[in-house]
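Internal tracking record. Fields below are filled automatically when a chain is submitted to the structure queue. Please do not edit lines marked as system-generated. If the sequence contains nonstandard residues, flag them in the REMARKS field before resubmitting.
Queue: standard
Priority: normal
Entity type: single polypeptide chain
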Amino acid sequence: MMENLPSIISFIFGAVVGSFLNVVILRLPEEEKSIVFPPSHCPYCKKNINWYDNIPLISFLLLRGACRSCRKPISWQYPLVELSMALLSLFLYKNFSFSVPFGIYFVFSAALLAIIFIDFRHQIIPDLISLPGIIAGFAFSFINPFVSWQDSGLGILLGGGSLYAVAIGYYLIARRDGMGGGDIKLLGMIGGFLGWQSLPFVIFSSSLTGAVAGIGAMIKQGKGGKTVIPFGPFLALGSLLYLFFQPEIISYTKMLLFP
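SYSTEM-GENERATED OUTPUT FOLLOWS
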C-alpha cells in the first residue's frame, strides 16, 4: 500500500486541480466573470454548492449526476475534466516522479486540458492562457533538464511562425481565414514547453487527426468545405502524445527515415 501512496496522491492532486479547471473552462471565456467569485453554484437554481457536494469525482457519483437542491442534471464535463487531470497527473508522476519536470509539465498539461474544452465549447483559445504560457515555457526552460532555453526559444519562434505562414497561405488561396490567431499562439506555447524538436510531430499528428475529425464533421453537418472545427484541441492532444511518448516517437521516426 505504501509504495502506491505517491501514485494515489498524484491522482487526487490532479482531480482537485481538475475541479478548479472546470471553473476556468466555464468562466474564463466570459470577460465579465471572475474565476474566483462568486463561489461554485448550480447554473439552474443558483444555490451555492456545499463543500461536501464539491468533492472531485466522488460527489458526482454520490449525487447521481444531479444537483442536490433542484435535481437538475450536472454536466458530464465536470467529472470528465477532473478524471482527465487526475490521469494526466498520474502519468506525469510515472514519467517524472515528484520533480521539477513534474511541476513544469503539470502546469503545461493543465493549460492544455483547459484549452481543449474551451476551444471545443467556444472555438476560442484565450490569450490569458496561451500568452502567459509562452512566457512560462521559456522561463521554465532555464530549470528544465529536458529542454534548453535555446530549444525553447526556437520552439516559440518556429511554432508560432510556422502556423502563421500556413494561415497566410490559406488566406491567399481561399480568400478566407482558415486558422485563428489562438492556434498560432498555442503552438508557440507548445514549442516553448517542449522545444522545437516537438513541432514536426505535433503539427503532423494534429493535422492528421484534425483532418479525420473534419471529414466526419462534414459528413454529419452536410456543410462541405464550410464546416468549421476547432484545431486547438488536436494541437493539444498531439503535444500530450509527444510529452508522454517522446522516446517511442523518436525511435519510430528514425526507423522510418533510416530503415
